[in-house]
Design brief:
The chain is of the alpha/beta class and 291 residues long. The protein has one domain. The strands form 2 sheets. A 7-stranded mixed β-sheet has the order 1-9-8-2-5-3-4, sandwiched between helices. It starts with a helix and ends in an 18-residue tail after the last helix.
């Protein structure tokens, strides 16, 4: 069944991918209308998440963010399809690096220091991987979780590795990072996914008790990587800018949970500054903190 679904859909996916961006965004608008007004895709989840995150906003203000999110989310879906055939040059034009970020990475490259970039599901995180691949001399590792459909998993792997990035299954993270420790490299952690409640750090995030993955902090301390927070700011439709802030050059010198709480607070700040730009449809708060 997995193979049948894949081979039925793949011609349609590639046909979409070769369309010019203006046509692609027209299709995104239609998809958005259907998703929001007809199917109500995860509308209950999105509204609940926004109500908790922004209790100070009026209902009308939250509805505006909701509609902006759906439009942004649909654009991201179609942009990800476009990445199948998009040139490296065009991808890097559409997700540029802030000059301060470029200079920061250049400095650590000259010092021959490995980097962990920690970020959330903001902007178009898949397109951003192509900008990471353009960074000064680094071998780029991108963590991912395998899809249940092996055919679409291979397709997504192909997209992520097109411009030289090396996708790593999250289950193999430590082994793979240890293997390439002596090669100048950087690893991208998307750290806002739902952590298992028994193996996490609990903290307030967007006004709710939230289990946070500790993998970034644990591996940074074990391997002594520089840790940089990265945020993908949406400049306009189809145009993003990657911004970065140094968290620490010496993670082992930080107290327990300090690194984790720092990158979560930075992400929270940026979500509040550009609310529609985060993945509100994710069931982020499906676990409750034990009392």
């Amino acid at each position: 069944m997995n193979a049948v679904v894949y081979y039925l859909l793949i011609p349609f996916i590639y046909l979409l991918s070769v369309l010019p961006f203006p046509i692609l965004y027209l299709k995104s608008d239609v998809f958005c209308f259907l998703l929001y007004h007809v199917f109500g895709y995860r509308k209950k989840v999105i509204r609940e998440n926004l109500e908790h995150a922004f209790p100070e906003k009026t209902e009308a203000e939250r509805r505006k963010i909701e509609k902006q999110f759906y439009r942004h989310f649909c654009d991201v879906v179609f942009e990800m399809v476009k990445l199948l055939t998009l040139s490296r040059k065009e991808a890097q034009k559409r997700c540029t690096l802030e000059e301060n970020a470029r200079q920061m990475v250049k400095r650590y490259f000259q010092q021959k220091k490995n980097i962990i970039w920690v970020m959330g599901h903001t902007g178009n995180w898949e397109m951003a991987a192509q900008s990471f691949a353009d960074l000064e001399g680094y071998q780029l590792n991108v963590l991912y979780r395998k899809l249940t459909n092996p055919y679409f998993d291979k397709l997504l792997y192909r997209v992520r590795s097109r411009f030289g990035a090396y996708p790593i299954n999250v289950d193999d993270t430590f082994r793979e990072m240890l293997r390439c420790k002596d090669t100048l490299n950087g690893t991208v952690f998307i750290a806002d996914q739902t952590a298992q409640p028994e193996n996490c750090h609990w903290m307030k995030f967007l006004n709710r008790d939230t289990p946070i993955y500790m993998g970034t902090e644990v591996l940074a301390k074990k391997l002594e990587y520089v840790v940089i927070y990265s945020y993908i700011y949406k400049v306009s439709r189809g145009q993003y800018e990657m911004r970065m802030e140094l968290i620490t050059e010496n993670p082992s010198q930080l107290i327990d949970n300090q690194l984790t709480e720092t990158h979560v607070r930075l992400l929270e700040r940026d979500i509040k500054a550009q609310p529609f730009n985060w993945l509100w449809s994710h069931r982020r708060w499906k676990y409750s903190k034990a009392r």
